[in-house]
Specification:
Blueprint (H helix, E strand, L loop, with lengths): L1 E5 L11 E5 L3 E2 L1 H12 L9 E8 L5 H15 L4 E6 L7 H9 L4 E5 L8 H12 L4 E6 L7 E2 H5 L23 H25 L1 H26 L7 H54 L4 E6 L12 H13 L7 E6 H53 L6 H48 L4 H8 L3 H74 L20
Parallel strand pairs: 2-4, 2-6, 4-5, 6-7
Antiparallel strand pairs: 1-7, 3-8, 9-10
Helix pairs in contact: 6-8, 6-11, 7-8, 7-10, 7-11, 8-10, 8-13, 10-11, 10-12, 10-13
Amino acid sequence: NALFINHKSNRSFGDYKSIDIWWSGWGNNLSFAITILRHLTSSANWKDARIRLLAIASESGLDEKLYNMINKIVDDFRLTMDIKVVDNSVDKLPVNEIIWRESVNTCLTVLGISAKKQEQIENTYEFTNKIIEKLGSTLLISASDDFEEFNLVAEIQPGKKLSSIQEKLELPELKYTDYPIINEEIKRIDSEWLSKLDLTFDKTFRPYFSANKNIVEKLNDLAQRVLNTLAKIENQENKHRKNRIWARAKNDFYFQLTAIINEYSDKGLKALETQLSEGISWYLTEVDKAVDSANKKLEVQFARNEFKIKKADHFGLKVLKLRKRFLAPFSKKPVSLKHNYRKILTFYLKENAFRKLHEFLIQFNKMGQGFIASIRDAVLLVENELEGLQKSILAPQFPAEKMDALKQAVVIRLDELDKENSQNEISSNNWLLQEFRKNLQLLCTDLTKINANKVVGRKRRSKKFYQNLKAESLLFPESWMQNKMLYSNLIKLDLQVFSLQFRLQEELKGFILHLNQKIESGLFLKIRKFVADIKLVTSPNELPDLQLESNFSATK
């Protein structure tokens, strides 16, 4: 987690009476902000502050829906605050102007910084500086994955995604430079690495989506078998036979589903872990080899007008330009500069690859958790629907409409699950390729700068940071499998509980039936005979004994 305070000394925190939180409608920052404010408002200074949560609705008709959804989230957190959704569907004002208008007099404004892509860092910095210049003291926050994530944009507009992970789109087109040597290098890297990324996805991640598709198909087949078995009840009139068909269908459901989940967890997950481990290791090895085999230097012939001093140039760049111009003051020939090419590639092709892979694996893990959770939801759906159907399916009138509704619900749910898996497969592959192409464009742009070595050096983080990312990626398959095993064990536990409950119910039914038969044959039958014998008695001395089995007490 990261927090930055921009304290305005001329205003400080005013009278400590107002706090504004601005939220985009998605991400982890809202839950992080609320956690911070719980601590802040417990202090003497801020205990009476009025808190407002503000969001912007950029499209018509979304403001009320967005308000209701935010209100529900706030209720769950149990923190008193006002909610305001600004309708920007008509005016289409810039975000910074809306924030200025609403929060210019606020004592403390809380703004979230999302996990921006590499190419957006400079823009984010400029945009944030622009916003806070007209505000009072501002708290800038960036939450880790430990905090709860919300995505109201996807819920309000299901077809709209916040990331570039959507349909199979065309890759961003590369914008080439005026320098042939740079263009040649960029084209070579692009062609080589798009193929390697496709191969990486095919051998590392695609088997997982194939396994998911296979399990959905098996669930679909099982559901159809169970429903077909239940349909046979329609032609039965005998209640006992109906009950036997019902019991057979339920037992088949539990037994076959347990077998499917066992196969997935005992065999499938282990094989997928191996493929993940081998694929990630292969990719990281290829990254190392590509950088190690690159030329150490790249000589670029820069036009002389690139060395004109500009007002925005920092001191070091001005010195570089003056030095190069001084060496040949009257020449009109291009100026030759050598970039530390291998070092630049180390950042863009190696260190950024570690960062992007790590980011992808986090999303891949969440995707997997979502899929297993959806499988569990589908199992619970079938179980609940079957339980609700039991009484009516054993009634004299067969509930054909209810059976059709159940069949439709199961088909729709499994179809949604299959589509979700296919969409995740397409979008995951596409995300890797898009992020690579964006990163390559940044490399291309930086190589056109005469101080490229310095520019890239300022972007780099510590060597240990990238080593940790690489190490975590290599350890990912094991933790991924353990996580999936946990979720699959939850499903198996559900099935064991359902199966046990059903067996106990059937045993109880059998016991009650047997008990009734025993009472009928061992007690009521003899009592009826005893009563009939009494009616034939003419003298009290002739009263018969009532002889019962040892299970029942004997009396006269």
